[in-house]
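Q: What would this chain look like folded?
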Amino acid sequence: MDFKSLLPFGRATDIARTGTDADPFVSLRREMDRMFDDFSRGWGMPSATMPASFLSPKVDVAETDKGLELTAELPGVDYKDIDLDLTDGVLTLKAEHREEKDETDEKKQYHLVERSTGTFLRRFALPFTPDTDKIEATFDKGLLKVMVPRATPPDKPANKIEIKAA
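A: My prediction, written as structure tokens:
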């Protein structure tokens, strides 16, 4: 019996060829697969209980003449579960997501309880000295907007230089 005919298309030639005369496209494919596996290793992949949009919410940061404008999409997060902190010129955004789903159907005789939780944490180093008394943050319909204004430099008196006669 010819077992090569039972192998999926293209595999029979892979097994028959070994060494230096192997198909160059097969080795290229293996190298590309290995490269993508190495590149994506360690990334948090979304699971069925945690949507991909929560693992890496969209955050827009813009530096303007007035200061720093930050906009973060945090769907499903309650404003009470968001912490903003400014310490040593670093703005920290932390958000907790908790969701619980409870379903019961007496006709089909099942009871389902699903829970998902997750934490999001980002830090932004400010490239300027902020005016900490005027920072504003608003949260509406899953969209967090933060405005960190620049501190106005204090007015320094001109240094009068004394001229001495020679």
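Strands lie at 59-63, 67-73, 82-87, 90-105, 110-125, 136-140, 143-149.
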